[in-house]
Design brief:
It holds the Pfam family ADH_zinc_N. The protein is α/β, with parallel strands linked by helices. The chain has two domains: 5-125 and 286-315, Medium-chain alcohol dehydrogenases, catalytic domain (Quinone Oxidoreductase, Chain A, domain 1); 127-262, NAD(P)-binding Rossmann-like Domain (Rossmann fold, 3-Layer(aba) Sandwich). 26% of the residues lie in helices and 27% in strands. Strands 3, 4, 5, 6, 7, 14 and 15 form a seven-stranded mixed beta sheet that branches. It has a six-stranded parallel beta sheet with strand order 10-9-8-11-12-13, sandwiched between helices. A two-stranded antiparallel sheet has the order 1-2. It is elongated and about 65 Å long. The structure holds NADP nicotinamide-adenine-dinucleotide phosphate.
Length: 317
């Protein structure tokens, strides 16, 4: 591929957005696979890296992007021409990631996906599906007939959590932060505004919460849960902190439990892969917003402000 150039979003300074540049197509070494990226996701984790606010960061300059999907161009381990998704092993964290037309990735990050899968779906389903599955089944351990409240219920993780909890036999209440999102809460959940969360609005006590927004929304949701109920914490888009009165916390007897896909990825992988088929068939729904790499600023703004509905993906095809 000498002489051929390729676009890449290069992060030069934490706290600034990467610049779109032309560069030579990178070459794969043994143990690495060269992928022609067709789509790559822009997620909160990627923005935390761009901002320099994550526990694992690359040396700069670096290419962000923890998840991508594309075609294998060269590899000792994966057949050329295979449609794959890539993530893990520090990709987009300490290693160069997927925000580029061509990416050289460790062979171990490459997973084949069914031919014909939309690359935007292939690069963006695993985290929200896997996290939602872990939250519902492993952490909140939702039982049929329970009443489950999901915050950020129109977001990527939140909307899938609503759908998976409902399939598990729960009665689901979906909480959103703005009125424009009420109609994006998947059926059959009852949609409620975060500012209007109250025992009356949710019609009684809640057995389990899956919280994807944190901050004051988490504090308010905790107050709705029955004694011995569970709160599975996924994310903190609405705030990294909240204060808790420890006397009230002990009295309430509600467990606050972290959901960490990095430690649970392997245990949910088979279920997440199975649900990709259902997503592709439209039996489960994950909305995707698509942007060209030249529209990164707009894509990031949609995600940062919470205006985005579902996944935000850069289309590199
Ligand atoms: N623990 C894990 O392993 C894990 C895995 C995946 C994701 N996450 C985290 O989970 C969270 C949700 O991820 P996601 O992919 O579902 O994100 P998303 O699709 O962007 O949804 C996040 C939701 O947060 C709400 N929100 C409230 N205040 C916001 C603000 N200031 N800026 C942006 N959004 C705001 C928005 O809903 P409203 O408009 O309804 O308020 C938005 O729909 C993120 O923090 C992500 O990092 C954690």
């Amino acid at each position: 591929m000498s002489g051929v150039t390729s676009r890449a979003l290069i992060l030069e300074h934490f706290g600034e957005l990467p610049r779109l540049v032309e560069r030579p197509v990178p070459a794969a070494s043994p143990g690495q696979t060269l992928v022609r990226m067709l789509a790559t996701q822009v997620a909160h984790l990627d923005l935390n890296v761009v901002d320099g606010k994550f526990g694992i960061l690359p040396d700069l300059p670096a290419v962000p992007g923890t998840n991508g999907a594309g075609i294998v161009l060269a590899s000792d381990s994966h057949p050329e021409g295979t449609l794959v998704r890539v993530n893990g092993k520090g990709l987009g964290l300490r290693l160069d990631g997927c925000w580029a037309d061509h990416a050289v990735v460790p062979d171990a990050t490459v997973i084949a996906v069914p031919e014909g899968t939309d690359p935007a779906l292939a690069c963006s389903f695993f985290t929200p599906v896997g996290t939602a599955w872990a939250a519902v089944y492993s952490v909140a351990a939702v039982q049929p007939g329970e009443r489950v409240l999901v915050t950020g219920a129109a977001g990527a993780v939140g909307s899938l959590t609503v759908q998976i909890a409902a399939r598990a036999g729960a009665e689901v209440i979906g909480v959103v932060g703005r009125a424009s999102k009420l109609s994006h809460v998947p059926a059959p959940a009852k949609a409620v505004l975060a500012t209007e969360m109250s025992p009356e609005a949710v019609a009684g006590q809640i057995d389990a919460v899956v919280d994807t927004v944190g901050g004051p929304v988490l504090r308010d949701a905790l107050g709705l849960v029955r004694p011995r109920g569970r709160v599975a914490l996924v994310g903190y888009t609405a705030g990294r902190e909240f204060t808790v009165d420890l006397a009230d916390f002990l009295l309430a007897d509600v467990s606050l439990l972290p959901v960490n896909l990095m430690t649970r990825g392997k245990e949910v992988a088979a279920d997440a892969e199975r649900l990709l088929t259902e997503l592709a068939a439209g039996e489960l729904n994950l909305p995707i917003e698509r942007y060209g790499p030249d529209r990164l600023t707009e894509a990031v703004e949609r995600l940062r402000t919470g205006a985005a509905v579902g996944r935000v993906v850069l289309d590199l095809a």
